[in-house]
Hints:
The protein contains four helices and seven strands; from the N terminus they run E-E-E-H-E-H-H-E-H-E-E. The chain is an alpha+beta fold. It has a single domain, classed as 2-Layer Sandwich (Alpha-Beta Plaits), CATH 3.30.70. The radius of gyration is 14 Å and the shape is globular. The relative contact order is 0.26.
Amino acid sequence: MAVKRMTKTQVPVSFGAFKPVGHVVVAFPDDQSAQQAARDLRELGFGSEDVLFYTGDEEGREMRQMLDGVSGTAEFGHEVVLMRRYCELAREGCGWLIVFAPEDEQALRAGEVARRYGARVAERYHRLVVEDML
């Protein structure tokens, strides 16, 4: 089954928890680092629709809204732990990229760019697990 590209209006969830399968979620120290990383990713061949930028305020607001709607079943999952971590990093002013990278090579390139710009978190979402890219 093919994964769908996330958009800012269509955020993938499972039992109410953030679950962007086929994407790498990256928190950078600030918005400027995230925006530079987005430019580098586009230079590496990622399309503008493949790289979503969020400010810390935007990411924090979205995660808090989703956490309010998480089902009891999802409450014990790792995705919810990550969502809480994302809220914390957003409060600290991190800039965010969510990169559509369903293929291994794409995910590796996203991870390399994340490291280059001092990412605090880089998580690749698979169907059953979430892989730490740092």
